[in-house]
Design goal:
alpha+beta; 21 helices; 31 strands; 25% strand; signal; Peptidase_M1_aminopeptidases; M1 family metallopeptidase; Peptidase_M1_dom; Peptidase_M4/M1_CTD_sf
Amino acid sequence: MRKLSFINSLPMIVCALLQGLYAAKAQAPTPQNYHANDRFEQLGTGLPTPNTYRTASGAPGKDYWQQRADYDIKVELDEANNKIIGTETITYFNQSPDALPYVWIQLDQNLFAKNSPGPVSRTGDLGTQTSMASLATISDMNYSNADYGYNITSVRDAKTGKPLKYTINQTMMRIDLPQPVQSKQSYAFAMDWNYRIVEFSKGGRRTGFEAFKDGNNVYEIAQFYPRLCVYDDVTGWQHKQYYSQGEFALSFGNFKLAITVPDDHVLGATGELQNAAQVLTPNQLKKFEQAKSSDKVVVIASQEEREKAEKGKPSGKKTWIFKADNVRDVAFATSRKYIWDGKMQEVAGKKVLCMSFYPKEGNPLWGKYSTEVIAHTIKTYSKFSVDYPYPVAISCHGPVGGMEYPMISFNGGRPEADGTYSEATKYGMISVIIHEVGHNFFPMIVNNDERQWMWMDEGLNTFVQYLTEKEWDKDYPTRRGEPQAIVDYMKQDPKNLVPIMTMSDNLINAGASAYAKPATALNILRETVMGRDLFDYAFKEYSRRWAFKSPTPADFFRTMEDASGVDLDWFWKGWFYGVEPVNQDLVEVEWFALDTQNPEISKAEAKKQAEAKRNTVARQRDKDYIKESVVDKNPDMKDFYNSYDPYKVTEADKKKYETYLASLTPDERKLVESGLNFYTLKVKNKGGLPMPVIVKMQYEDGTDSLVRFPAEIWRLNDQQISKVITSKKKVVQWTLDPYREIADIDEEDNSFPRQPTAPTRFQLFKNPAGGRRGGGGTNPMQEAQQSQPPKAGQQGGAKN
């Protein structure tokens, strides 16, 4: 502890400051602890220049426009040949100020065609052991020599029927128009096509079929029709090739969808079913209508019914007709195996029909959880963003592990054959349903360009998924969102990392860089940087502004600042444009106490310290070793100093102190007598990413308190800062980021005095004679079931 002297010369100091003010304007001295940096400079020209389409506030401008495409689609599933046969009429509305001589079409199924840019550019290597799936992915062995991808049989003018010239460039197709479609005009054209459906287990991506041992298939069909590319004020035509990681950029429109399938199939699709009476049995129709107003799950097509269908054969075909307005895409799932259930969830006074489609292999998980999770998801997401606007929300189980489309999603999560499942399987299924249903909001409503910026839908969606999981269960084992969960990723060598602001197809470890890191960043904004009230208002405002429109990253960044009044440019630069980690080091804490100049106190403390210093090991041993000194033997050797006590308070000391107190104002005297402790904390920014400094103080009486300093504490020196903290109580332990709020990658240097973190534990064991070593299996439910004795009349073992 050091003593601080209080200088009684405040008026003189103020005068000196005033006198030096003008000189300071001319040439301000550089503080000794200054380190030049631009971390808190504005993004400025790093963002696009605002214009009448997109404003500086982040809102759509007065001249904002976006294209629209309406579709009338008729498709048939050829189950015998696993083939889709289709025809469509597209009406394209040119809302742009430009005349367009051609339009670009996405041919996503060409991802599976020979020499597709995705598989051809994919890299990988072989180890001594490689899975079949990995080998198929690396070599593209499943599709390179097969007849996959679109077979375009006709492209024509919708009115005249005249053929249109077109050029296919891998996954893109340009259609040359007879004459440019002018601004504010529309043009309609028609196409016929067919393609073979990929078997998902052999390299399918986002769409395909699963073949079951009973001879039946589950089909999850998406990207099944040629779709318009986006033309906008930012990119012009977004016709970047489809490599598979970067998903889709699409325009809104109204859809009519007619799907012909075998007549024993159950089918779910984007939109409202228009001809339920024609495609459903009387009992299914009754249950379907009941589900629309029921707050309990209603089984529309039962497992018993579907098991009968699995063993039968179709007698003909049925055409299911759907209508979907103001959506950017459509998809469907169909199978004779599909169990179907549903319930109603009210959102903002509107009834939404939540439905699930799943084979019996998904039970008991799917029947118990899926539809309830859908209802919870649209309700919770509506609270944090915009009200769910569509009439239905669907979750389908099949081969696709997780993929989203308007009103419908494809989700994994399947129990063991005996009906048991691990905790990881249960929560994995619930999480993927929340995530994929949540995508209805990002990007199906807030319609960003996924081909360019994966994080704008995956990151934002993963963040709201994290909030939704916690509202499902307070103890939910969330995988992404908590700052400490991103630490291992951010510990890596920055050379191996890419910024969040990286084009989708160029992302390394997209799961971390496009999902987890942006979700974590938003959680840190909400909990630590902005606070929940400011963040929630701004995030909801962004969702409201850009619902059914197409935002860019700059629109998000600007809106979050505009609606909250918080300068976040430093945050976007560090978290989204950079790869530096957070690593704060509490290097030192210096302890000061105010010198009150009270001799009763100061001399007593000085005496105590002097005696402590004199109490050396030599002096302790001399008590027995030196029996009698010279001075002890001869008192004449003593003088004044042998009896002098330098720590005795004299009258002169008392008078000097009284004079000092008389010179103080009441406020100054209160400060002198406050008994405050002053601590100077020295903190290094070893990681590079500036973040708020959060300090926990533990006092000698067993209590504690927390202080927070904003990230701007680093603005004059981004490498090391000193901060003075006052405390009435004596602090015995200091800890940075005690509740793991900022993703600090090294907790070892977060305490002063240094405290060891949890020990690295090792196990002591004897090598078993056989079998594995250590803890239990991954499916406790199955183990518990197998440990139960069989009931009377039953054989032991798992059920078939």
